[in-house]
Structure formats: C-alpha cells, structure tokens
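We modelled the chain as a single entity of 812 amino acids. Its sequence is:
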Amino acid sequence: MKTESTRENLPSGEQARQTATNGAPKSEGSSPNIPADAVIIVPVRNTVLFPGTVLPLTIGRERSLAAAQDAARNERPVGILLQRSDEVAEPGPTDLYEVGTIAGILRYVTGNDETHHLVCQGVERFRVLEFLPGYPFLVARIERIPEPEVSGTGIEARFHQLKQRAVEALQLLPNAPPELIAAVQSMSSAPGLADLVASVMDLKPEEKQEVLETVDIEPRLDRILWLLAYRLEVLRLSRDIGQQTREAMESRQREHLLREQLRTIQQQLGEADEKSAEIAELTEAIANAKMPQEVDDQARKELRRLERLPEGAAEYSMIRTYIDWLVDLPWSATSAEPVDIAHARKILDEDHFGLEKIKQRILEYLAVRKLNPEGRSPILCFVGPPGVGKTSLGQSIARATGRKFVRASLGGLHDEAEIRGHRRTYIGALPGNIIQGIRKAGTRDCVFMLDEMDKLGAGFHGDPSSALLEVLDPEQNSTFRDNYLAVPFDLSKVMFIATANILDTIPGPLRDRMEVIELRGYTEDEKMQIARRYLVQRQLDANGLSAEQLQIGDDAIRAIIRDYTREAGVRNLERLIGAVGRHTAMRIAEGAAERVEVGPDDLHGILGPKRFESEVAMRTSVPGVATGLAWTPAGGDILFVEASRGPGTGRLILTGQLGDVMKESAQAALSLVKSRLGDFGLTQETFEKSDIHIHVPAGAIPKDGPSAGVAMFVALVSLLTEKTIRSDTAMTGEISLRGLVLPVGGIREKVVAAMRAGIKTVLLPARNRKEFEEIPEEARERLQFVWVEQVDDAAHAAIGDWEAARVEPETV
C-alpha cells in the first residue's frame, strides 16, 4: 500500500476556489467560453484521482499546461482522465478512458526549475459524452455520476471488514503515517472508505481505473477487499522474512561475540591460537614469494581482511584460496640452465628423425638466448597433419632447453574465462588455463604448449581466440591480467608453442603474432626410420615384450606402411605395430611360442587383408580417366577425374560433391577443349548433340579448389581423342582460358602422395619450380618431374602421341 498525503479532512469547495489561483501565472487573455455542462480535461499518466482525495500533479505538456492555467485563472474545475497508453505524447479523445474525476484546483505552483505543479482535490466521478473542438486544449461535454445511496446489512458488513483489513495493512507498513490510520478508523461512509483505500493501495493504474469505473458500491467493496487481501498476505510474508533475517543476524553476532571471548580465554590460558598460526604462516609465505610490489601490497591487504573475519564466515575460505594462489605462483622462480647447444642438438636428434628446419630454429633460439639472456621468448606455431609429432616435439624442446613443460588443450574451448579466468565474485571461481599451467610448472620460463589452436570455438561466453591475443603478444604479455588474480603476471619469459592442423581457421590477428613452422608429411623411407628407431621399441615396452621375443623385419614394416596405412604422419603406423605386438604377447602368454619373427607374409593373419592397393592402372585403363593430386589437412592424396560422353543436348554434368571453384575449373577445361576442336577432328555438332559428364569418385567427400584443372583438361582430351592416359602419371595445376598452367599450393604433400601411390611421373606447373628443393630427396630420386606451362604440354606428356602438342615439355 502507498502512504501519500491523502487525508479525510480536506479543504471545502469554497476553500479550493479561494486558493485555486495561488501561484497561477497572470495572463490578459482567456479561452473561449466553455458550456456549463463541459469541463477542461487534463490527461495524466499512471495516476488515477478518486473523489475526496488530494493529489499533486506535475504538468509538462503544453496542452495540459494551457488547460491547467486557464482553469486556475478562471477558477474552473478540471476533469482528470487516465491515458490508455503511457507512450502517447499528445493524447487525443481515443487515447483516454471515458470515466474520470472532477477536481478542484487547490494550488498552482511554479518551481524554481520552471516546473509546474497542480494540487487537485477530487470531487465526483464523471463520464465523457463528447469532446468539443475549437479549444487550445481538451474540453469535453460530461455527465456527472453521483454517488449511489447505500444501505443494508451486506454493505455494512463489507464496510467494517474493509476498515479492519485496511488498518491491519497500514500497521504492517514500516512508515505508515498515524494520521492516515486515524483517517481510516474515523471514516463513516462506505463509498468514501472504498475510494480512500483504493487511492492509497499499491495498484496498477488499470486496476485503479477499474475501481473508479465501478459505480455500484457493493461490487466496488468486493473488488477492493479482494485486492487488499492479496496485498495483506504479501505484507505478512515480508514481515516474517524480515523477522527471520533479524534473528539470523543476531545469531551471527552472538556467535562472533562468543568466538572473540573464546579467543581471549585461549590467550589467557596460553593455548596456541590456530588462526594466529595460520596468519603467521601466510605472512611468511607472502614474504618468501618475492612478488612484485603491486602484488605484494594486494596480498597483504587481503591478509588483513582475513585476520578480521571469523573462520566460519563464508568469505573466509574464498580469501584464503586467493592468497594461496598468489603465494604459489612462480613470480621469480626460473628453471634456467647453462645453454649447451651441442647437448640440445643431441637431444633433438634422439627424439625426432628429420624435421631439420624446426631443429635449426630451436638451436637458433638457444644461441640467441646464450648471447642475450634477457631477450623475449619466441612464439612458435607448428602446423601440420595429424601424427607428424607436433606435441612430442614440444616436449623435446623443453628437454633440450632444460625447461619445465606444460600443455593445455584448446580443442573445443568456447569460453573466454578458460583463458582469462573467472572473477572472484563467482562461487568456485578459478584462474584461467594459462595461470593454472604456470602454477603447475612452478617456473615463469617454462615451455607452454597450446595444443589444437585451430579448433578454438566461440560462443555467448566470449571468444577465447581474442583473449589469446594478449597472451601471445610479446609486447603485451609482460602485464597479463587474469580476472581471478586481478593483478598483472609477467608471461614474457614463457616459451609458448602452438599446434594446429590447418591455418585457415586461426584468426588473422592471432596468426600474425606467431612464427608459423610447417611440419610436412613423412615419406616412406622417413616412416621406416621412425618406426625402426622409435615406434617398435615403444610398442615392445607397452606390450611387455623384449627385442628377443619379437622381431619385426624391415620388409614387414615397409609392407605395413604401403599396404595398411595411407597417412601423412605415423600415428596409425604405430597403432598397427602395436597390434602386431599384442598378437605376439598373446602367443607367448599362452605358451604357443617363445620367440616370434614377423615377415610380410605373416601380416595377413595378424592385420587382415591389405587395406590399400595400387588401383591406378585399373582406373586409367580406359580413355577419359586422369589421375590428379590433391591436398588435405591430413596430407596429400591422389584423386581420379573421370569423363564420359553420351547423347544429349550439349550439357556439362558435374558429380562427386564438387565445390564452386572446382566446378568452375571443369567449365574452364571444357571451354579450352571447345576452342581446339580442329585439333581433335571434331565439329561443334559433336558437343551440341552430346552431354559431357565429369565425375570425381569418392562422392561422399566434399572436394574443392582449382588444382584439378589440368587433370580435367587432360581427361577431356583423352575422352575426345579416345587415347588412354599413362597409368603411372599424375598431375596438378590450375588452368586459365588462355591455356596457361598456373601455380598451386601443397606441392610437397602432393608429390609424396604420388610416390606413395606408385606414380612414376608427376606433371607440375612450371611456376612451382621454386619449390623443387622442398620436395624430399627420396621423391626427387624416384619420380620424374615434368614442368608444364601450357595445357597442350600437359596433354602431350600424359597421353604421349597427341598430335596437337606444339612444344616439347621440359623434363627433369
């Protein structure tokens, strides 16, 4: 219920007329004559005036201001009407309710801030019959609604019940004026009491308007009794809740007083104070942590707060945990050891075969660190297919540099708080993965691996990749601020190493902060060396076998590589060697054998039939089939482009789940073929009465990119000339409508895939010749490379006896 200044003893109508002009502005003019059965209308928002009550109004709109001033000057009553919608700035007749209250103006006041206030006294209800035009404000012809005569026991019972409930509700209010309670108790009129209670109750404007429009006293009393019963129940519940809160507060204060008395008694008896010992321990820990001055001040400030709190307080454990995090972080601890480049080179060679560029980069960093110990640590990003050793390489770097190693997986991370931490206001808040990893390492110059950087997500909790911008920026991470710690921590000495399978999904600003080093797929000989040096021994140890119990020949390992795996890395190769080891362990455990030698012929019984076989010769044994080379995030691979011709209307049909770029390459290849119809002995009618169908098998796998353009052109030439493409030849390159072969990416991976598939000759764009040195030496020795500049060169090299070739391609 509200407790505004609504009173029973109000000024009379004569007094209202005498004071109506107090404070009203003086004006010479006057509005046109208003009929006797009409009244000036003042629309109001969120306010309902009842008869017999006094209500202050603030006037702001120009029309309402003109209406109030005219009524005050001419001592006229006004009609107070509620707007149907608060959003209407200048309400019209349709925007107002029809029932309102006639009011006399008691006072018109203009404030020092040029605000206008009107104090009105409600007289009686009225109903609008029509609005009259021609006035500068709203004027309406009205019908006065007199208060009905009341009598009967039902009315009397409702009157007494309403008075009793209203007094009870006012007594439950914390600051109810005694005059208002007295006014309710002294009321003798049932309609007057109903209007008075409705005016002071905390009701919505629509509910008050409903009461105002209820003329009959019995339903009006019933409606107010129902509304008052609901408010009374709310007030009772609020009183009970407040009483329970006070009792809980008194209980805590009593507990605190008893604890203080207990502490005094323990001190008098000389008993050890457990909390004092804890505070002393934390004070010593803060002193030994060697924090920066800003962090030290924050820790001691929290310690003083902890001293003042009782141990049972909810905030006690939160502050204690926060201080523990501060003292446990390695603010000054390092694991620096004398730099020995020869020792580091030895460790890198022991742990990893090949990867010469990466080893060289690490040794360069160590050399710089030896000459400039205060230099910033590099931020490296290893990018390569799965299974090539990115994560294990980070461990080797930590071992070679004598640092602690810690790893955080970012795959699927979509909450920024996982990087920056949660604020301490949340229950169970913790620092982010960066600070947690530093604490786990125990040194501020550890090797920190951020694994699966390309698989970061983003959601409504924020973007973790944006939070990493500060972490991976050497110019900013010296003052990295975790949300939980709320103090800066220096990350400039941490050697961050990120790993990813592809770069495309890493945001540009984040990629720009890292030095990208690509790890390419392994050749067959490299896989052989890795298996012989590392994988076989690792699986022997994992399966409890010795080198005498299981011997896997080199031929068997090479057969596993060729016939059972087709990957850029060695993860599946290690898994299959493990399967051989488990098979051997089972035989030895059963007593069926004491020593097992595994050769190529034994693999069928252990690993099953061969999973991969050379299908190049079979797939290219008919005209229209070309072997292309493709790049995937898992390394290179070969793909086949099949072309066929049948009766039709000159359409080009493309199948195999091709992307837009690959479809455009097919259309460009067909246009090039049509531009050379004379070379094939064909006419335009051949295409007008035929449909060309180009299909790329493995239709469930999406394919895109321009590098299949050469393969599509050669497949179409083979189809139209009815001459078969060489089965040992693969090709890659983008084509233009001028017949040029444009450069493409992933040359190294594509060449390794061609060698793995048994290809002998590879057709590459001449403008990719600069990447020849990056091709593994084994592939350069085993493959023949043809560098082509025109599509005619590619067709001549792949088909052999095609008469249209004009230039002999250069062969390496």
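As a brief sanity check on the tokenised model: The CA atoms of residues 534 and 596 lie 20 Å apart. Residues 2-30, 802-810 have pLDDT under 50 and may be disordered.
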